[in-house]
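Supplementary Methods, section 5.1.

A reviewer requested that the exact input to the structure prediction be made available. We therefore reproduce it here, unchanged from the version used in the analyses.
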Amino acid sequence: MKHQFITVEGNIGAGKTTLTNLLAKHFNAKLVLEEFADNPFLTKFYQSPQQYAFPVELFFMAERYKQLKDLSHTKDLFQTVTVSDYLFTKCLLFAKVNLPEEEFRLYQKLFDIIHAQLSFPNILIYLHAPVSKLQLNIKKRNRPYEQNIADEYLFHLQETYTSYIKQHNIKTIFIDASNADFINNPKHFQVVLDALENDFGEGQQYFTLP
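The structure derived from this sequence is encoded token-by-token as follows.
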């Protein structure tokens, strides 16, 4: 396997965790999943975004940092590949959407200090799906606090993600996940596996699912 650290990213409801689990199983990789349920501010944030945006983002950043930092200190001879369902820069992207300007500037200073201590993945897999598909997935997984997420919020996150990837020319497998069914359609999963075997430099490579 040419990539030792693979990260799957995408908007809320894009199918990140599903694909990450499949990849970890396929490559016998170390699995890193975001522990979002441990955030005590998350439900409160969806109820009152302005009041709880800063603590919810600060908690996420601290937890993600601890998880990825612990990972760098543990070596496993039998699991040489790591697959994660989040990019640490996700902290900054969500903060940019959720925080007012003054709080965001403070948050960014903290982020810059912490981010410098972490390894960046070898390759990013970005799942892009229309907001209508995201909303269907969100309804299907039925987390109570997510059920009233506005389309506008998902659009804003989508634009923030894609802008960041393109501006920083990150090596990205960009997948149109409009009809993605990685569990029940082996051809969809095979597209991802084939893409990971491709040799390409920095920038985005676009793939559609059959």
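The chain has a mean pLDDT of 93. These observations are discussed further in the main text.
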